[in-house]
Write a structure and sequence with these properties.
Endonuclease, Chain A, about 475 residues, two-stranded parallel sheet
Amino acid sequence: MNWILIAQVVYVIILIFVCFRIIFDTDNNTKAIAYVLLAIFLPIVGMIIYFSFGINYRKRKMYDKKLGDKERFQGDLEKELIRYSKDILQEGDAAVKSNKKLVNLVLKENLSPLTNNNDVKLLLNGENKFPEVFKAIENAKHHIHIEYYIFNDDKIGNQLVDLLIKKAKEGIKVRFIYDDFGSRSIREKCIPKLKEAGVQTSPFYEIKFYAFASRINYRNHRKIIVIDGKTSFVGGINVSDKYINNQKNQLFWRDTHLMIHGPATWYLQFLFLCDWNFCANDTITIKDVLFPQKETFISTQDKLVQITASGPDSDTPTILFSMFQAICLAKKEILITTPYFIPGDSLLDALIIAGNSGLAVKLLVPGISDSKLANFASSSYYNALLKAGVEIYKYQKGFVHAKTLVIDDEIAIVGTANMDIRSFDLNFEVNAIVYDEEITIQLKNAFYQDIENADKINMQAWQNRPKYIKFFEKIARLFSPLL
């Protein structure tokens, strides 16, 4: 009996320590409460879940990445980038001048400059993205940098592998980062083939059995291609056959990507090299061949573009902040497409305020979801939005995987970040912000075409859904910080 009493006392002391640790280490109140409740009501198991999934890597800086001497680099260029961005802001059209608060926010948080002289092409779905990717890679003259969350060992994946091998044998420097969880199917066959041909490959934070859980939680969700430091691709489309809509695929995948040719590629290059130096333990530094001079770009469109990125290594959730600011700047219309909608209190309040202020707010989410639990959690937010006049549509043609935000006819955001806590806090993400009426209208038109294949949620019918479903939604929402 004495041993049982001692064990109970020791357990209570450990539990108190863990709860203090959770409260001290977790900035998000909702997330902290969720982990404390888990630790208390799931003895031992709750603690294991916290130490596997809940450690605040942003605070601990375990993912701090370096590009040579990154701090010195930022110190040297900060004044120049601010001046450069302000000059472009001064010369820009109404689309960027009326949204200078967003420009300044991203510049301060990310040191990501506003760039002009960009050509931007909107690519809807894999069948439109991959031909452009293959053409651009085929024309590479110096280097090809690729970074993907999901890169599958399937038809399109192997076609891209074969092209990378071909370019490597031509003397082109090819560097390839793959997420070790999302791209696990290429480890055995594709990676050895690439290495043998001279392609430099590196998994992003290789998964080891002893840290398996936490490394699934903090993954590199970015999809970046940079070619010769001039042409780049960014968006939601991974390298997988399922993103190509043909007769072989049973499920239609709706997604969105951007192709950029111009100085906006600089920051995507910077992100890639930071990630490369981190996961490959390399020391690549700034070189003109990696960051071509602005005078070498030939543009026919002169689009204004800014890149925003965040992850467990960043001081603040910049992507969350940028979306919040963009929504606050809206004057007429807000169009959101996201496969996972767990916005947290700040974004939810911003959307409710926008709806109650008379703005047209429309949200497109999957009707066919790949995660029932996430779908239940998302549904728990809809009632408050519907009451504020927000229109919610459930996509029925297939699975909508696009991550886009349209503000009026002035801001178009396309990237890898879902509108959920995981993208804002747990994974490495990147978005492109385009301040341009033409691109914004193109994305806006795509949104309205999508909702033609969606069911609009009826307020009365939604409120009358069975109580047990509402209960499951509330339970799922309690665990939303963990999804």
